[in-house]
């Protein structure tokens, strides 16, 4: 059974709801990476599976736009002006590109664009700055201040760290002088007034709950929004669910302060690129680059086929990616019986492609004309879906040597010329690529030549190198008639040279 079906079955056993509210949130602190996709894809797949089983679900995405800008992502280091905004809430940071009202909303728009590209549908999108300004968190802040000893006890016991004796840090006020909310400390709370000081600029001031110039501590923010949104299901990366992590705090807040059962959690493993964890600050795993070469459905398939808590290691090595493309295609053809792969393929969009991505690479290198290629393979849908990726592979030198088919004819030695001609004369248009490939073995052995030597001679004749694409497949793509004419032309030159 696939992890998503198993999880949803457990949800139905644990909780009965008319509409299952599924939530996901992330901080819009910079360019998206593969981890961003996981934050969207996993809960969306759960929501989609709930509906598949005939129940209702409602998928909410929350952008944490009030988190402080704690570092400048590698892709944005050219914007020196961002340094002046470090420590400020993301929704109060300038958009360095100048196209949105602020930094947070620029990268929220990137996330929404990403959802469209990955065909992830969200029922509602919310932002923290709007939720706070509308007062949704006000009563939660009052509750936490009024039960400060209990809050303190929960935080200390679930996070395994001792808080200062005079701790009142239920909220992080936004400093009225420097605008930071990462360096403020609450000194007192009376009659809805929060007194604070800022260690960055030395300012001492007050702000009212109703001013909404504050944000709850993350470990208190998360369960609060789950409560007022009525969330049934929410999870995140395994780091949130380690012992002492923020989920342990959220559970206790729900049970001890809200007197309710917490949402049903899930946790997913890390997405690694070449064995390394994603990092916004280091720019590792930039989707902008990855999406030049990998179709979104193939990415979704790769992320969903693993067990939920398993780490996913995406290798950007061309042969690995070609194998992934081919696995996706073959699962769609029913060539794999693994239910996890099949469900991942279904949830990824379930596209059926008539030929492999590697074959399409060969077609494009030969013809460089998509109209011609569409007529040859008779699959307009496939061409429209994959042509951009094929062009990027070819134009950016990503095609492995075994699939490079730039014709560079060279003259074979005279002693094998006769065997090449016999092979050429033994094939015709009615033969399959496998038949043509096997014919090399037959002709070679019948003429006392090692098959490997005949393969090498043909590759050298066509490409001036000893290896190339699978020969039978290449000849079918090129066209048997065109192959024969090419051989005749090359071997005629050889004859003239003897």
How would you characterize the overall build of this protein?
The protein is α/β, with parallel strands linked by helices and 498 residues long. It has four domains: 3-132 and 218-272, 3-Layer(aba) Sandwich (Rossmann fold), CATH 3.40.50.620; 138-143 and 154-216, no CATH class; 357-403, no CATH class; 414-497, Arc Repressor Mutant, subunit A. It has 20 helices and 14 strands. The strands form five sheets. The chain has a four-stranded parallel beta sheet. A three-stranded antiparallel beta sheet has the order 5-6-7, with no helix packed on it. Strands 13-12-14 form a three-stranded mixed beta sheet, covered by helices on one side. It is elongated and about 100 Å long. The model is unreliable at 494-498 (pLDDT under 50).
Structural class, from helix and strand content?
A: alpha/beta
Query: What coarse outline follows from CA principal-axis ratios?
Result: elongated
> Sheet with the most strands?
4 strands, parallel
CATH architecture of the largest domain: 3-Layer(aba) Sandwich
Mean pLDDT: 93
Would you state the CATH class of the largest domain?
Alpha Beta
Report how far the terminal alpha carbons are from each other. Answer: 67 Å
**Beta strand count:** 14
Side-by-side strand order of the widest sheet: 3-2-1-9
Percent helix, as a range, is: 40-55%
Under CATH, the homologous superfamily of the largest domain reads HUPs
- Would you give the CATH topology of the largest domain? Rossmann fold
Q: Low-confidence parts, pLDDT < 50 over ≥5 residues?
A: 494-498
